[in-house]
Design goal:
By secondary structure, the chain is mainly beta. The chain has helices spanning 2-12, 16-21; strands at residues 23-30, 32-35, 39-42, 46-54, 60-67, 72-80, 83-101, 106-124, 130-140, 147-159.
Length: 162
């Protein structure tokens, strides 16, 4: 009986905007970041699946991302009409950094992992998809003096068929 009551209260607590967003999506994130001492770097596009679920708060959703590489993370967002506002959160981001060693005439490529804060906002589109503009800001794990900043990271979420 208690679980039925809890389910009924949860259902009553949802708003139309949240209900319209709940579902499964495929996603692609891409953009350009600036890494100190290196310059602008085009991020390798990140693709995978995203599940958008409601919470016990009327205007909040959780987006659970499963990257095709195996990485997983969650983002919470507040929903207002057709907009979503990402609550700042931390995650790790691997970035391929190339360095031109002019003296040797070669280019060295290596991956660096950054601890970044993700923030931003999105819009629910008329076709049921969601489009976000995110910002990334953080520091390299192996060298805190190396910073990463990106202000126009595009995250496109396409709703999967039900």
């Amino acid at each position: 009986m208690c679980s039925v009551l809890a389910l009924a209260l949860t259902a009553c607590n949802q708003n139309e905007e949240v209900n319209a967003l709940v579902g499964n999506y495929t996603y692609k994130a891409s953009g350009v970041v600036n890494v100190s001492e290196v310059g602008d770097i085009h991020l390798t596009p990140e693709t995978g699946t995203m599940s958008l679920t409601d919470t016990d708060k009327e205007d909040e959703v959780i987006m659970s991302f499963n990257h095709n590489s195996g990485d997983a993370y969650e983002i919470r967002a507040t929903v207002t009409k057709d907009s979503l506002y990402v609550r700042p959160m931390h995650r790790y981001l691997d970035v391929e950094v190339s360095r031109d060693t002019t003296a040797l005439g070669t280019v060295i490529k290596n991956n660096e992992t950054f601890d970044i804060e993700v923030a931003g906002s999105g819009k629910m589109l008329s076709n049921g998809n969601v489009s976000f503009v995110l910002s990334y800001s953080g520091k390299a794990l192996n060298d805190a003096s190396r910073t990463l900043n990106g202000k126009n990271i595009m995250l496109q979420c396409k709703r999967n068929a039900k």
